[in-house]
Fold each of these.
Amino acid sequence: MTHATRPLIAALVAFLLLIPALPAHANDALRAVVAQNMDQIEKPSRRTVGPLIDQIAATGAEGVALLGAWADRRLGLSTDGRVLIVDGDIVTDAVTGAPVPGADPKMLRPNSGVRGVIESALVASQISDPDPAIRSAALESIARSGTADHLAALTAAAADPDPTLQARRDRLRTLLTIQHDDDSATRIAAIESLGGDVGLDFRAVLNPLLSTRQIAATAPPEGANIARELSPGDDALSRNAAYDLLKAQGIAQPRLTADAQRDALAAHIADGAVGGIPVADLSDPAARDRAYKALEATGQVTPAATEAEAQAAIDAHRFYEVYAEPDSAVTDAATAAQRSAQTRLLAMRGVDLGLDALSLASIYFLAAIGLAITFGVMGVINMAHGEFIMMGAYTGYVVQGLISDRTLSLIVALPAAFAVTFIAGVALYRLVIRHLAKRPLETLLATFGVSIALQQLAKNIFGTQARPLTAPGWLEGAITVNDVISISTIRVAIFVLAVLFLGLFLFIMKRTRLGLEVRAVTQNPGMAASMGINPDRIAMMTFGLGSGIAGIAGVAIGLFAQVTSELGQQYIVQSFMTVVVGGVGNIWGTLAGAGLIGVLSKVIESFNPSNTLAAQTFMILFIVIFIQFRPRGIIPQRGRAAEA
Amino acid sequence: MTRKPLILRNPSILIVLAVLAGFTLTVTLLSQAYGSGVIPTSMIKVLGKTLCLALAAVAMDLVWGYLGILSLGQMAFFALGGYMIGQWLMYARTEAIVAASMAQNPIPPTPAELQTGVANQIFGVVGSSDLPLVWSFAHSLPIQLALVVLVPGVLALVFGWLAFRSRVNGVYLSILTQAMTLALALWLFQNDSGFRGNNGLSGLQNIPGLEGVGQARLSVWFLWASALALGVAYLLAAWVISGKFGSVVRAIRDDETRVRFLGYPVEGFKLAVFTLAAMMTAIAGALYYPQAGIINPAELAPIASIYLAVWVAIGGRGRLYGAIIGAVVVSLLSSWFTGGRAPAIELPFYSVNWVDWWQVLLGVAFVLVTLFAPRGIAGIVDWLGGVMPPRRHGRDLGPDQGALQEQEAKA
Amino acid sequence: MRRAERVMIMTKFTKILMMTSAMAMAGAAHAQDGEPIKIGVLHSLSGTMAISETTLKDTVLMMVEQQNAKGGVLGRPLEAVVVDPASDWPLFAEKARELLTVSEVDAIFGCWTSVSRKSVLPVIEELNGLLFYPVQYEGEESSKNVIYTGAAPNQQAIPAVDYMAEELGVEKWALLGTDYVYPRTTNNILESYLKENGLAEDEIFVNYTPFGHSDWSKIVADVVALGADGKKVGVVSTINGDANVGFYKELAAAGVSADDIPVMAFSVGEEELSGLDTANLVGHLAAWNYFQTAESDENTAFIEEWQKFTDESRVTNDPMEATMIGFNAWVAAVEKAGTTDVDPVLDAIVGVEVPNLTGGTAQVLPNHHLTKPVLIGEIREDGQFDIVSQTEPVPGDAWTDFLPESAVLDADWPGKDCGMYNTETESCVQVQSNY
């Protein structure tokens, strides 16, 4: 609808108002408000829509119903300019409540800012709604944008039958009291009641109370709530910053910048010279200074502030940090509350970082565990290992396409991924690796060839775009201890999976016949063969097992990250690092390697949160250097095997 | 006893140099600038770049085929060489532009203003206006030329010294070299490192001071330079691997421990060859990127170094001409197949589009070469020349696990 | 699994069939007489960028086919020369030279990433070619030989940030991007714009991650923690490609809804969303100059043509619209100039006005950028966007006003014959572009 037609429609609506044959219960006040504000209803803006919403809400139940529909994007405009509420197939006129059959309304799409304002207006009536879901949503809405009105509504509302909702409501009321109550004693009591709390909402209330600004003055400002006095030159306020503050307050003159000097000189060129200095010489900064001095002397330019003047100005003033909150008792209480939470907050941040590190370590471990078997135990290097991870992830995607129930598809996908990559592993071993026994460099290169081919095959089959692999509902969301410590469920599941595989690996190696034979073959293939073990078969099975585990790791990684043909490539170098850093031939070494890399990455990342790439770079650099000094890893292999 | 000169002992050197000279002459006579114009300038650039890749492959063969180190980080040196020359190319070109622009101002610029202007031009696109410390010498061609060999040389020296000293060998060393190039690539990817991040250095084909020459002639000049560098490097490499030094190097490849017990400073030999190869690769890079026009960190992604190894393997490692053949054949084939010019094979049920399937073919071909033809294409030359492996009656040719087995020697 | 794979191969197979037939059709001269006019298509058909760029190649082929059905240009048929630079940046320069000197094309439609454009620039300028660049980019450039049909920062980033501040009440900003030039420059411009509007240093959090980054837990936690001082946090995301999948998944896992922390993405369109389960992303935003859901007759017709040309399930996106506009502008300029020579066409193209798909027109400006409306979309459950805001067409600004060095610069090709004109010293800084 264009601008030009809109007044026309408004007129049309006004005309319709005069037609007497209307249902008796039509809400005339609502009709008038709607008619006057068609523009706003059609293209609302968060900044200006508030008064309109209040007006509509004031017209009674129909108005509230209209607002509710508006916020849910169920409001439409008919071609003749009526406002319609669409509820599935049923379309009713918002003003009259009469059904409008066969209407094809143009749906209105208020943006989420406007929807927030509407919801906030509707909240007061929803606090006591019989439906607990609506009550919960109402509390959430208040938590997002609480006002003094909400405080009153919360205080006035009857107790909630649900104790959890009541607890949330109490907390909200305390927080709103701190922000909006008039009585400072009540506010201080509210602050103190939450002392030591590390919740994000509480900190979000405290911090604005404690926000400060810097001012310069010759004497302590009257009536201001002074946080502290600053002395220029220390960490909080450098001398330059102090001078900038003076400039900003209009107390001091700006210093002469190189650009300003150049422009001033350019403006005073006379006969190819400035201040007696030829223009050609002015490429020298010293000559420019002399020329400017000369201009100052003749009064052609205003003298700029010199360094000494600047210092004098700074010394003549005192600098204060002033709270925005005028009441010093409140700020004192807030400072105390903040301080008491500080240590806990710091500790919790540490715990959260630790959880992140643990999660990353378990991902690396899961990606590397298959490699720990093929490379670590058997000494066969397989550069296509990453592509096995990728194959597992794609298997998960394909299974999810066939089975729509996500839990079931995950249950099917895990063994399917194992089977697919097991077969691929065995095939790779039979066809390539067996023929290159004892030639590790050739094995490395040949498996690279396989890796290149597999990657391109995946691209040809699935395309280069990321494919969706979505976790079932019970793996969505996060386990949240409080606002600081939280970890997504899927990462916990990966951790559990990693621990399971560690157990499985140990069980197979230490408790089964296969494990015994594997150990025998790796220690002395000749001797093992003479004991009736078929080394070739054992090697093949072990290789298949390692590859199969890579497939399962692929499903797990695909659940939290993206499934692309380059998925494996991202993990292959890190996986090898994990095995090598940990120490070859020992699962505990791989665990230690993954732990070291996980913790290290996260710690480096926390030093410089704005540059994740730097963290990765330094991590790899560290590993490169680490291996130079401990070439056999954290847990080195001992004995004769180490010399092989 | 007087020894025969190097060239007489290795007639292959003469053949390679003659082929190279003939090739250069032919291309020149068919070029747009100096001849009939049958070969367009873009093709001359491709050929010139291929010669640089062949030079890198020769260095790779030196390290892998003769010293036995499968270095998966050679492209790091290649790209470093390119970055070093790229710094000067970019700085000098920009400086000329900025100086010309500032000359129009009423007041001549100070050196500081000029530098700020240059920095603004180069780094404005990545949101900075300070010249990073690593660009301190970018204004000087001689220094940057020296850095082309010095920076990769020192990197190889330090990395090699650390690695060889702690006896990191075989597969471990390969992975470590790969980690090195990955770390370097990630570092260059960062904008903060001062090499313009992912954008890299661009416009390198415009040589400052030679604006009037035109790309048609420049491309031929670069072809000459690349051919000359390849010829000299080939001679140097052939000299290194001949004689006593070369014997020791090959002995290290076959059994490092035994050579060490014989009293040779194994680490010293390894370090010398590794560093020399790194410098040769860097020179190849410095010649390559002015022809390519742009360098960015993707050039030293681990996969690039693996391709280098693939070329050498397919061409035939342990033979310098094999490396050249591999690099030339595979890289030209690659660009033909991925260029969308190769005709698709129409099967009744599927159309094989080479853009999609070339990589698969390359991967599989590579596996097959490793399995069945460890000598690669150069094996044909051996076969023609009647070079037969010594009869060892089933014994291995070397005691080490990685040494050539009789089965392969026959292949 | 095997069945699914076969289905996949089949669709791929039919697609390839259609593509080859399309190429054959594009190449064939219809009823028109005369030598065909050649245009180059320089989009990656393999490598990492293939998924995005192949779509644009198909778009150009479709436009060529349509134009030939209409009788070609100047009475001559069009012929598209398709090459594959394989997502390899130096190869872009090589292929561009080949197109201009060997195939002798009159115009090139191509490039996606900034670095590929920077690679092609010197070649195009040296050989006086003509490139139509169809993707939103970081600005700070205006070449005589390039028509930028995508958005400059003032046509996407700045209006999007205004929208978040005005309509969503965002007071604290997290600028998350992949570490390359487009996010870097865009974030620089935004930072300086926000500071001009009175925001403090610590109210802006900037983070750069590598391509394909997958470990987002800490970054999401950092963003959530920004809310600790009681201000509404908004995320401006210039995260590229696949990395978005992990990012949005982590965001959903952390329980961050669009109402709490809205995310405004500049690089996420209809194509990217197809790799995601969008149920948890409902309400997050994207800013473009076109969405498939735009309501106009031109758009309906375009989508229909496109799905007929490729297949039913294909979506349309912003760079496709830009490609279409660029193509039509070129055709109009050629008709106007009466020749395909680059210089007359460049003279003729400034001022040309062609319809866009959102119900307005796009005009080619003297700085070789276009006028474009800015659209903000909220993600829907079906992976499409609800358009919640649409501005009048905004003229593209090559040199942003929000960085001190470029505020004084101006580009005016027909007037001053300069793409980098310093309005303070009133001189042309350089005629060629800075690459």
Amino acid sequence: MSIELGHFALILAFAIATVSAVMGLVFWKRDAFAGYLQQAALLQFLLVAAAFGALIQAFVVSDFSLKLAADHSFSLQPLIYKITAVWGNHEGSMVLWVLILVIMGAAVAASGRSLPKDLLTLVLAMQSLLASAFLGFTLFTSNPFARLVPAPFEGQDLNPVLQDIGLAIHPPLLYAGYVGFSICFSFAIAALISGKIDAAWARWVRPWTLFSWAFLTLGIAMGSYWAYYELGWGGWWFWDPVENASFMPWLAGTALLHSALVMEKRNALKIWTIFLSIITFSLSLLGTFMVRSGILTSVHTFASDPTRGMVILALLALFIGGAFALFAFRAGSLKHGGLFAPISREGALILNNLFLASATAAVLVGTLYPLLLDALTGETISVGAPFFDFTFGIIMVPLLIVLPFGPFLGWKRGDLIAVTQRLAGAAGLALFVTILCFALTGASISLAPLGLLLGFWVSFGALAELVDRAKFFRTDVVTSFRRLFGLPRTAWATALAHLGMGLSVIGIVAASAWQVEVVTTMTEGQVSTIAGHEVSFQGIRHEEGPNFTSDTGTFSIASPGGEVRTAAAERRTYVASGMPTTEAAILTYGFSQLYLQLGEPQADGQSVVRLWYKPYVTLIWLGCVLMAGAGFLSLSYRRLRVGAPKPSQARVAAE
Amino acid sequence: MTRKQKRLSIIAGLGTVLVVAAGLIFFALRDQIVFFYSPSEIREKQIAAGTPIRLGGLVKENSCSRADETTDFIVTDGATEMTVAYTGLLPDLFRSNQGVVVEGAMAIDGKFTASNVLAKHDENYMPKEVVDKLKATGEWQRQANADGAVIPEVLANDNCAARTLAQTVAATGT
């Protein structure tokens, strides 16, 4: 019964979304409609939440008359995986996608009192249009509420690779980021339709950009770490098209975050900011298309049904094409904003945008080129890591070199020489630390010193900004500390985000350049040494899990410091599907990790074991977490949330 | 600087960066892409040793032999066979008659040296590239018919599977 109620709720949400989209777009000039659309947005949220709740309930009680549960769940699965199995499949993940979309819409509706009525109506209408399109897609091509008669006695189990806590965290975070950018998109469309765009617009959009960007950052980092420990390939980024699909909106969103800053503070770069808002969400949609249409095969492809692909492609063409047509038609009528010299904070942010946009383009070309070539000529190629490492790497170098200068430069016109002097300390320190690293380790990998230098430069440059603003070394220490903690949260956020970026770069360089890998055959009691760690194999024992059985290999590891730890690497077989998976054992030493993977047992009782030592690898993800944390810190700053003042009037009064 | 000079210098800067970025992408697309071939195509096109390529096809039944950490196996598209040598752990889902994609290059001795073996995700998964190539050689229909309950029988005496049927039965207790 609850399943039918859920189905009905989803249909009702679709109807309400459709009506409010049409009404909002037709009558946006009438103030009364803002109130209706606010209520409609809240209703959509409640209805989709009810539908989602019905799905969760069916999965939790293992109601296998629901086809979705029968296909993707199993009665012996632990409760957490029964719940996450709801979105571990195509239909359910679409419902989650729409749920987050309507949560965003409801959040705008709830916080929309400070917005002008016409803008609010248009934004909510656009959100409803998106909700209507994707609810329609879910209901008509991938209905999650289909029943099975007669109901099977047992389900077919969730794909074992997905039976992990990662599935509980990664998709919701990623979707919050992906779908959050829909708000920026809706604001951009609303601005284009109404023709009103000023610094206040940027103020309203910026918190949403920050919010989505922070979630997307966390989502990507979590996905990367999940792939690292669960898929057992030992790598943390594969330039897989599906990873790129989430990375492109992140790059564009990072650019948007910075250009919205210029627009808010200086009322410049308006057209570009609007353009980026559209681009960012378009890339999110493109990602959804690539992942959901079955055009690519990967862990994210649950089922490929050609009609679904065509429908998503049509929706993609409708939204992206429509948005760009509107942009082309209206952008000319937007007024240009403040002027500035090339060497200025604005100039630095433009450079940031330029490099990020180029990097996005490089990733986009590399991701779509094989698909296009296959469609046009039938030739199959793969554009792999070498392409991306090369193009993306080269584009990132100037970005990272320029990065620390940005926050030091003044708005409108900056003094490059003065800034260079203030950054000299950071540069010297970065150079010193890099040389020290190489003197101590003696590694001689061609590009590693440059990469490490860049990482330290960005990190120290970020800290230098805090040191400089707190006037350390120029006044007494107590005053400096007081100044440091009195700095606005946005200053802290900028510095921490940039520091996070630097740490990630250091982690990437160190983990790639100094990684050690050993593949060896081991018998019980045998010892193998990797990077000073003595790994001794204690043998394999058989264990029973809730819905799997495993052969668990136990290892005892003596670190160079003499500390001894034990670790277990597993080879599991899932009962329902008979599918084997490998669970790696990961030991963390400071920021470095030892990664052990157990291979198939040989006939003579030996086991192949693969060992990696990955120095400073955790910095990659810690840096991302720091970046996201900085986003939330900035979001918590009150000034950003309060209704924006009217800058144009203020300026008139001042003059 | 005048207003016009400011604009011009910004535009010139933007233009330079864009041209360089576009140049980079095209240069890399020419040099850094990896072509995907079936064993027949490798023979046909006389791929030079050392060129990084991807090879796709089916793992030939009982073609695996192991020596320490190195496994030799045969990838076939029905018409041509290619011996592949790989050092390392084979993926969990690697077994006879399953689709596989290997990354690597031809060695001078005519073997294919793999740096990476991809056979991932789930037991029904067949890489799209492999399906296309198999369709081209007519091998696909036979495979499609044999699909379904094929796995246990193949496992029974498959020296390529990570686990034999006996081990699977012991492990699942069925």
